[in-house]
Every structure is written in structure tokens, then in C-alpha cells.
Amino acid sequence: MGLPATKFYTIPEYLALEATTGQKHEYHDGVVTAMAGGSPAHSFVAGGILGELRNHLKGKPCKPFGSDLKVKAGGKVHYPDAAVVCPPMACDPDVTDAVTNPAVIFEVISDSTERYDRGAKFGFYRQNPDMTNYVLVSAERIYAEHYSRAEGDKWNLEFLGPGSLLNLPKVGCAIVIDAFYEGNEMLIAPLA
After folding, report:
1. Mean pLDDT for all residues in the chain
2. Contact yes or no for 175/160 (Cβ under 8 A)
3. Closest of 136, 158, 141, 138 to residue 192, by C-alpha
4. pTM, to two decimals
5. Neighbour tally for 80: CB within 10 Å
């Protein structure tokens, strides 16, 4: 006996599914995958990122968004943990509530998501020429990997630990990454 056939969704079917179920789903060239919830540490760090972005971007043209923002790139729709979009905001004509021009994307990584976030998902996001920074932030310890666009599809990688400054020149801010974790030391481990 074989495996059940995969159902392929059109964009309108995907949008109807999200509207009727009230759940988030990622869209990958017709394949729809329900998103699972994260750990308390993941949620706390994602909230810390968004809070710091709001503080640092207050009064500036680029704006931060949380995990309810859809981002479309290369036929895929994802919900990053946080993103920064600079004006003018561009939305996809088929998925009108999906942004196509984020400048910065943050993903909080865990053991279950790290490989995908670092690999295929980054590949999808890189198809957007407006994205200049991709930041993978650990949910487990004060640590991040900052990818910054050099030219074309060449990217520089910077490893950030306690006390490190995350510099995001396109959006006009720099943040000490410890601030993402501030206030909940019980959820993170010191850098080994």
C-alpha cells in the first residue's frame, strides 16, 4: 500500500484554508504545511527581538513586524519570527496580505527548525533583492548568526555572542543582542 497523495493547493485555496481554519500555514509551490507552536524560550526571544526593533526604529521610516506577517518569496509563503519592512511596502498581487520586500528577516532557531531556517528557507528569502539582512537567533543561549548581503547573491556571515552588536545599516539601527534575552535568564544558558 502506497502513501496518500499530496494535495496541491492553488493560492486561492491556500488563502481560503487560512481564513476558515484560523491557523497559520506555510505555502510551498502548492504544498501547505501547518505551523506548530514554539517553546516558551522561542516565544520570549521572538518577543524580545520585536520589542527591541520597535524601540530602535521608533520615528524612522522602516517598521518592525511580528510573526503574523506573511512574506512571499519564490513561490513560497512564510511567517518569519520578525521582519523589518522599509517603505514603500510591496505586497504580492495574488497573496495581497503577503509582503514581498522585507529588508531584514529574523528567525529564532531551535533544534527542530535550525537546518531548515539556515538552508532552504534562507534560500527562498534570498530570492528577494530587497532583503539585506537575515538573522538567525538562538532560543537556547545568547547567540546569533547575521547574514548580510554583499552583492548579488553573495552574503557575509558574522557570529554574534554576548555583548555583540547587530548592525542593520539599511534600516538605521544597531542592537546589542543580549537585549533580545533580557529579563528571562531562566530560559537561556550561558555561551559555552
Report:
1. 84
2. no
3. 141
4. 0.82
5. 24
